[in-house]
Structures are given as structure tokens and as C-alpha cells.
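A note from the maintainers: we've had questions about how concatenated examples are separated. There is no special marker in the raw files; a new sequence line simply starts the next protein. For clarity in this README we add a label.
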Amino acid sequence: MPERRSCSHNEPCRHTPSPSPEELAGALRLPESYPHNPGRVDFLQTQMSLLFLAGDLVYKVKKPINLGYLDYSTFEDRRYFCEQEVHLNRRLCPDAYLGVVPITRDSQGYLHVEGEGQAVEHAVKMRRLPPERMLDRLLHEGTATSAMMQAIALRLAAFHKNAATSPEVSAFGSAEAIRINTDENFEQTMSNVGTTITQANHVLLRDYTDHFLSTQSTLLARRVEEARIRDCHGDLHAAHVCMTNGICIYDCIEFNDRFRYGDVISEVAFLAMDLDRLRRRDLSRAFADEYVSAAEDAGALELMSFYKCYRAVVRGKVEGFKLSDPMIPDDDRRKARWLARTYFQLARSYATGHGIMVIMSGLTGSGKSTVAERLGSLLAGTVVSSDVVRKQLAGLTTATHRYEPFGQGIYTPEWTRRTYDEMLRQAQPVLASGGCVILDASFLRSRERTLAIGTASRIGARAVLVESTAPHEVLLQRLTERQGAATASDGRPEILEAQIPCREEVVEFSEDDHIRIDATQATNAILEDIWTRL
């Protein structure tokens, strides 16, 4: 285990101050700053670090910040935590972490990585992992499999079995110790209430957390007695898993032991939650089930929802921190705001245990599918499209167009009933697991909306209608422009004209559960309104 050391001959004293993050970001983008002259250096940053991707290597420099739970403010702190990072990450990713190297300044003032002379900063040196094998990318591309999840579960179960534990580590499994972390989470999210989390959701999540810790202290104590509290990874989400060289799980928490010490199921819940966020609840279940079996830890299931909620709040908090970081570009801050909202909405679903059905409604061309897909990302929801389901039932590819007259072919009333029934059938298991489903269809008739409400009600899920409207001339223009486009929709102007007389007034939803949107607005503005209402 690395130890803290005082200033020595290869470390800066008062006359050799460390370079600022801005200077480092500029200087270390130059290929000539590296001993191997990589030809090109790509630059990334997180709230805590600067990362320089130099050919086959990555150099990670810690920012001189103090966030309370993390303190990199001095040169000695940053060097120490670089050493900690290498030491701890070699447990689950031994081949990638090469060591800690100095950054030096030459007589002309230029910075060099692994240069000669006195160190003015340090960096963690890593082999660059193949980006195409990162789990989050595999999930986005749809190539992640249950077999991969099971392999990760087995790797993690073996790691947890041998991970360090002690009375000091076990103490972090008590209700009192967990409450320190959860209280800190809610205090540190207060400044973003109204931006990344609504006031109502903040109150709900805090009440749920406090109630669980107050009533489940016996269960938590039993976990301590079973030696389930270990020195874990601490930050296990999909972006930190690479399916290469026997599975590399990297970038663990090194800056604060209490975030790494915890119940092993908290770690499992972290990745399971992230799989839910990426809308792969099937893989989330496969991963958790395999871990519980391999670790012989059936009691973990009693804690899964709580720890999923806890981890989602942590991720929402961390994304929210980016909003006040001046080094984060504006576009990245906007992405962080929406991602934080997703995590907090997911946390709410775990806390309540109830799913939500969002029913998109409106005439063809009113932008339902665009909003549905973005809403699916925001709410970590499964989008079920009538255009896709209808063609699946007919044995057609989604790209195949069937430009048939209104009410004929695969658009007869009987085909439409079959389509809506199948959409509701697909929605049920997601809702039953507490998830979110977005039904992307016209839902112009009262009977269709009533059946959807009944399905949600029987499962104990909330049903919300999002009614999309736009002026007639806008709808006509959109439909004319998109004819022949690579979409699953067969909508066109003549279908719009035939739909209009079929619309039935919405009377099945309360005002709270009926959200009307103006489809001529920008999608972000529409989502802002829906997020506030939900």
C-alpha cells in the first residue's frame, strides 16, 4: 500500500509550483511532450482528472481540487493518490496500469511527460484499452450479450470472495455508516434542485432512504456478520468495464476509502442499475442472477432496490457537479444535466417500486416518435412503437413500406387491435419490474387509451398521456418532406386527412396525467416540460 511522503529532491518545493490544469491541458496535447512522440494526442477530462490519449498509452493527471469528499489540493496528495490508483486498480485490471510517472519542466519552461529533472506533477500511465470493447459501447451497439454479463458476474464474485475485509472495513456496512454517505448525497444535490432533480423527487428519495435505514438495521447488521462488507471497486458502471484480456474492470475509487468499502451487493447493484439506465433490463437481470448464484448470496436480493436507488443518486449527483465546472464545455454540461435527470428518475422508480407507462398520442406527423425516443433515453424507458410492432406481426422488416389506403391491408381495424394488444403485452414485464415503457402510437380512440390505462392499473403502474399537437399545415409539410425516408412509419398526407375524423376527445386522464405538448417547439423544450410534469 503506498504511503504519503514529504517533499524530496524530485518533487517541487515553493520555488517550483505545479502547472495549472489549463497549462497542462495545453502543453500535454503536443506529441513532442512525450518520450514516444505518439503523432497525435487526444484530450478528455472529467470533474477530477485530465486525460491524454497518446497513441497506445493514456496519461491521467489529477486536478488540484478539494471537493470535501476528495482532496487533491496539494502536490503530495496528487502523487499519493496516483500511486493508490495504480495499486488498487491492479486488482481487477493488472495489465493496464503501468505505474506513476513524473511530469517535468525543462530550462525553457516546456513540460515533458517522463522527462528528466525535477517533477512538477505526476500522472498515472496506462495501456490504452480498446474502445470498441468497452461495455457501454457494446450496449449502445446492441452487441452485448447475456454470456458477457454472466462472465462479468463470475469475475466480480471471485474478486469479492478474496477482497480485503476487517473490522474497520465491516464498520462501513452499518446503517449509521451508510447514512453518512446518503446524507452527504442529499446535501450535495440541494444546489441542483430544480435543475437536475425536482423538489418533489428530492424529498421522496430522501424519505425513502431514511425510512429504509431506520427499519432495516437488523438486515444490514446480518450482512456485516456474514462478512459481506469488503474493499470493493466502488465505481462499477458500464463505462468502467472492458471486455478484453479476461475482462478489465478499471478506474476504481482511490480518493476516499469509505466509498470503496461497502456491501458487495452495492457494487452489483451499481452495474445492474447502469444496465437499467441503458435500457437493458434483461441483461441487468442476467448479471444479478448469475452473481447471486456464483456468490451463494440469495440474501442480497433484499437489498437490491435500495442499493440501486443509492447508486443512481450518486451518479446523478456526480453528473450534476459538472454543471459548475468551468473547464467543462457547454455542450458537455448540457449532456450532464440530462444524464443526471435520468439517474434521478431511475432512482425514483427503485424507491417507489412502481413502473410508469407513457402513452404518446397524436396525429401522424406530430413528432411522437422523435419525442418518444428522447423520452426513452431520459426515463431509461423501453420504447414500444406501433410502426415496428405492426410490421413484425406482418413478417415485414421495419424498413419495408406498405403505402396502403387508410383502414386497409395491415391497417385494418383488426390489424390495429392486434398491434395495440401486442404493444401492451410487451409493456407488462417491464412495468412489473418497476420500469418505464413509452408506447409510441396514435392512441386517437378512447378504447385504445382505456385498455392501456387498464394494463398499467392491473400492474400498479402509473399511466401518463403525452398528447402531441401541431397546426395542420405543419403536419402536412412534415409528412410531405419525409415520404420515402428510412423510417418505420407509413404516414403520409392522405393518412393524416383520414385520421382527423377518428380523433376522440381525451377524457380518460386527470389533468396531472395528461401532458399536452406543442410539437413545433424544440425537442429539448418539450422534454423540459415533460420532465417537470413527471
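[label: protein 2]
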Amino acid sequence: MANSADILWFKTHFGPRIAQAVQGTVFDVDRLTAIACQETGELWGTMRRKPNLTPDRIAALCCGDTLDADKGRRAFPRTKDDLVAPTVRDGQRMFEIARAALLAMAEHVPAYAFAKTNKRKFAHGFGVFQYDLQFFLTNPAYFLNRDYEDFDKSLARALGELRTGLKTLGLQNRTAITDLEFCKVAICYNTGRFDPSRGLKQGHSDNGKFYGEFIRDFLALSRTVAAPGAPATVPATPGRTDVPPQEDFQATGPLFQVDTLVNALRLRSAARISTPPEANVVAELPDGLMVRSVTGTPVNGFIEVEALLGGKRFRGFASAKFLKAISGAQGARLEGIAARAAAAATIPEASLAHPAGLVTKRSAIAGAHALNEPAMPRRTSVDPAGLRDELAKIIAFLATDNPAHKRYRPRDGLTFCNIYAHDYCMLAGAYLPRVWWTQPALLKIAAGESLTARLGNTVDEVRANDLFRWLRDFGQNFGWRRAASPSELQDHANRGGVGLIVARRKQDGRSGHIVAVVPETATETAKRDGAGKVTMPLQSQAGTVNFRYGRSTPDWWKDARFAESAFWLHA
């Protein structure tokens, strides 16, 4: 499997040619590199270490896929007999070319040494981007003329197939696509179709991991690799994945200010109140928040607006009677106040120091201290597969469902979702407080004082409702970003990132709830609807019921018990 060093070699030698070929398309060097990694990375990743092979010769040797009918191949030719049948024009000649191509590659890739003694074996896939031999029946010249040996011709063929994938998904008229959409296009490239309900678990499967998932991982890794003369799209940081940049308004309509004087204003996906009222809520807008309208014209008593929450742009419909028009000068003043507040945000993390000899264990009833057991798992990888594996080890280590772990076990009417969320985030390298500064302490910090965290003096314990407010008020300063949907949150977790769902109870004395959204595995998955939308993300929690992996109940965060909810993600 291709690694960062392999990708650097590939980009160094072929990146400029790819960059020229993808001009004016929705594709880029990283996306085509991901396809090349999945299709033939095991070949050129091995051959690049051979001192006597030039990059173009390596590209010419990239032929593989020897599966016959007995190993599951369904497309033509299923066996040698299919290819050399009298009804197949130039079939024997094609077999000889395919056999010779396989043997030439096998001279340099030990994994294919078996082909030398099995005289019925021949290559089914040709070129760096693997054009399948099933197309010999409709495009024989490409194979007979050995066009696949030319990197540029192989690239052109791949781009043509990817454009077909765009059409399959109805994306052919787009001027840009997301990386997740590209993964779906890649699945079409591999299979010719896409089933939205299966997400990225489609295409060729290897030990429970699917083509779409491989492309996602290779693309994320490729984005961290800087080729000579070009910066990496996403700098590689051990133990981190990327997070979306902070967004800004796209709408150009008049400015408004949320004016309820009572509570948050619901932003809805349609200009109507749903049944139940929480069903079509996409976000809650704090009283006093400045929003920008799309046109400013009310529709059914609602105005379509954009709001910036936690670095994320949300768009939807808000009740017109709770929106107060403001002038451009007032808007500039509000934006200036927000910018100065963000620039001045230098509040340090709060955590209690452990007294000498104190070890806070999972097996003990929870207090205000963080875990400090020896040899706790952490995230240190830079690639998605490694990050996911490390998150899985963290979940297994914390093991909320283990009766011996009293730290998370519900007791006396108390539950400990906040403590599990803190522990999970801490081990993953994302700061989520177990204790936080008191209001007097925050005033002293703002005045320039340096304080020590002391329980009941400068810091207090935080619970789920407090974490909702902390993420809203301070989360951005500690690397947290809002997500707009369970789909976005699950995709981020699947790339090895940290995700949370948090909901605040209407009755402040009652417990809110917070859960981690975690990477899908071969056996534990999120639930998607027919359009591919995640309806039940894969979660891990402590609560009334503790589980390492589960889907919980649909839209639990929209339950009438909760005043507001939010999705958050961290690198």
C-alpha cells in the first residue's frame, strides 16, 4: 500500500503532467494521485526502489489484476478461454500481450512471481490508472497498440472515465466538487454505479475495507504531501486530521440581528414550523446574533438567512418577527467587536494538577481530575487509517461498558457522559475541559493574571450543559468547529477526526447529553437513508446505557427535553 514517501515520488515525477491535464476540470493532482495509489500503488511503490527503472518505464510496467472466474471475476474475460475464443477478434494476440505485460511486471514485483509458473495467468488491468480488459471488446486499439504504457494516455483515459462518473452522479455541470463527492465519483470509476445508501462502502473490497474508503484515505494522505515547488494542501501534523477553515457569509442581502429577548431563535430548513417543531431545525441562533439575509423578503413569515456559528456557515429560514434590521454601519460595528474579542482570546486550558502519587483510574469513581494511568493510548499517526486505529484503541481502553470501570458506570441517578467525552477527547489530543475557569477567574485572566487551577476557587467541574455553552463560547479558540449535519460529522470521524454531538437540557438542573461520533468499522456502521444522508451516526458514550459503539435513537438531540443542540468537530 502506498505511503507518504511513495506519494512524494509519484507527485515529483508525474504531478506536473497531471496538473496540466486537469486544468479546467473539477479534478486535481491529489485526486488523481489517490486513484493511482489505489489502482497500482503496490506496483509503482515497489518498482520505484529499483535503481535501473525510470519513472516512465515504471508507468509502462503497471499492469495487474489477475483474478479469474474462480476468484470472483465477472466481467469479460473471465478466463483465458474467454479471451482466446474464436468469436473474439484478435483474442489470442491480446492474450499474448497481456501475458507478456504481466511477466514483465512480475520481474520487479515479487508478489506476482506466481504468474511465471501459471501459464494461464494474464493481466486484466492496464496502465497506472488501470483500464480494465473488459473494454477490449469496444476499444481494442488501446490495448493492442499498448497505449496504456504511455502515462499521458493512461491519464487521459482515466479522466474520461472520471467524467463519466460525474455524469452518473449528476455532477457534470459543477465547477467544483468536494473530496467526499470525488470519492463517490471514484466508486463509479471502479464499478460504473453508486448506491447512496451504502456510503463509501462500495467497490472492490479488501479485508472488509472498500474501494471508496481506500480512495478517501489515499486522498487525505496525498493532501498532506508537498511535492517539490508546491506546498501541501493540508500540512501533516502527527495525531491530527484537517478541519474545515472558518467560513464567511456568501449571501449579499440586508443584515439583521436576532431579537428574541428570551431564548435562541430556531433556524429551519424550510419556511414553516415542522411537526414536531424540532424536526426541521438545523441550528439555534443566539439572541443578538448578526445574520445576513439572502434577499430580505419574507416568505410565509420567514426570512432566509445565513448565520456564522462556531466557524461554520448555516443557511435556513428564521421567523421574521424575531429579526431586527440593522444598518451596514451597525453591522460593521458588530463584526469589529466580534473580531477584537476573537483576537483577544488568550484564555489558557484549565486542568487540575495531580498531587504526587495520585493516579486517576478508570476503575475508580470519577472526580474532577483527568485520567493519568500509565501507557494510555494516544493519536500519533498522520494517515486516516492510523488515526482511526488509534481512536479504536482509545475506545477499547476506556471501555465504558466494562463493569469494572466505575468512572463511567451510572449510579445514584447520575450519569457520566461528560467525563467520557472529556477522556475520549483528551486521549485523542483535543481539549475538552473537565474543569473550567470561574467567572472571577476569567476576569483576572482577562486582566493579565496567571492563575493556577484550584477546584472551587478558580475552577469548577463542568457537566454536559456546561460543555454545550463552553463549546459555543470558547470552542473555536481551542480548535473546535461546528458541523452542519450528521453526515459531515460522520465523514470527519471516518477520516480519523474527533466529533461530538452535544445537547443542552431545557431544565438547567437536569442532565444534558454529549456523545462522541466515532469512525465506522467493518462491523459497526452509521445508518444512511436512500439518498446517502447519515440519519444515525455511529456513537460512543457513557450515560444511562454505556456502549463503545452504537447508533442510539434517531435524532435524540432534537428531543423536546433539549433546548438546543450542536455538532462539533476537531482535528
